[in-house]
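Data availability excerpt. The first of two example chains:
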Amino acid sequence: MAIHFHKVTIIGVGLIGGSFAKVLRATGLAGSITGLGRSRETLELALELGVIDHMELVAKHAVEGADLVVLASPVGTFEQLVYEIGPHLERGAILIDVGSVKGRMVHRIEEILPKEIQFVPCHPIAGKEKFGVFEATEKLFRGTNCILTPTKRTESAALNMLREVWITAGANVIIMDPDMHDEIFAAVSHMPHVAAFAMMCAVAELSTGTDNYLNFSGAGFKDFTRIAASSPEIWRDICLMNRDNIIQMLDRFLFSLNRIKQDLVANDAKRLEKHLKIASDARRGLG
């Protein structure tokens, strides 16, 4: 399938949006790339780095003439953005997002999006704790999974086109139901991020009187809490938008924590080792 977009508009030129733009440029899939954002400084940096060709601060102007529009801002901004840009999208254009929450968000966007616009929800599993356009790279998606969550309204031509784009970016594409996506990623991504944030909050203010406890942290603590350095704004929106699933997973996590706590309170070495072994065996199975 020969794919070429005349004009691509990236809304939110950060790590993911900027990396996607770099892929389009490196592979010749886009004629021109326009960046839309709230910060002129960020957009000027994206221009300087060659990530985008043009910058725009007004949404309706940014999407005029675009045949592909990418929502790469925090997921909490998506609905309002679609209200703003919907009437100005070109007939037949494709809208995608790269957010890590789907479910109700996908269905809500389809409700307010003009029927002649195709929406292909995407979730590249490629984030890292560092963020911003300066960290963008066309190599970000290589060897990663990218989840596409089409609905009954998604046309096969648009779905197949985006599948090919992500494969070109180096990703392994998986098709999944939007609601199932949110259940799964509450368990393997969203709840672990919350746990890492909570761990940092628990330890951050502890002090010996002369030194912060964090000054003594080793590789284990740093590995466990690495993702707590992620963007608070992005993760605020993710947590609130997938709240119900995350709460359910936090209940499971608290159950596991309390079970180990009970082993310690009872000074029960046998049960403690049993529960630690369950976790150790499962983790070793991940490779």
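And the second chain:
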Amino acid sequence: MLSRLIYGARNTIGIAFVTTMLAFLLGGALGILASVLRGWVDEVLGRFVDVLMAIPQLIFALVLLSIVGTSVVNLVLIIAVLDSTRVFRLSRAVAVNVAVMDFVEAARLQGEKLGWIMSREILPNILPPLVAEFGLRFCFVFLTVSALSFLGVGMQPPTADWGSMVRENATLITYGDITPLLPAGAIALLTVAVNFVVDWFLHKTSGLRNEP
């Protein structure tokens, strides 16, 4: 059980991290792009994101995985695309206020390209909320991956995964065996720990100081 918990941590956390990174690359880039271009690009992307967000994420992921198959690549891509909608909303909301500032307009007048304006002028000024959101998104993605594995459409045996470990040992709880609680406790502990790190980062970046 200890060996499977260790290997399961590598698989579960690794997949959740990669998925969250892809979601931020996709959602963040499109959000900043929409805030810079505005007009019909902003409208089309916004309506498409609204459609995806209107469908419950877990149910949508279950349907898509049952259609395309339950491989690790499909799991990562589907969850990343679905979760990128939340990142798009946040990145657009914080970038739209930066995109109208004077230094961005000055970069446009200097003839800087769109990629330069997005990556060098806007992105550095919206990093704190994005980094904080990265921690929260990681928790949600991590819980989604575990839930899909518990339902049997995530990581497949014999690959160790915390969600599938809970499912495999669930019947033991009726005999007073605490084995199913070990991976469940690991999931809860990691989620709480990441939230503490996010809270600490928000406190540091806010500029607030504790009173003596």
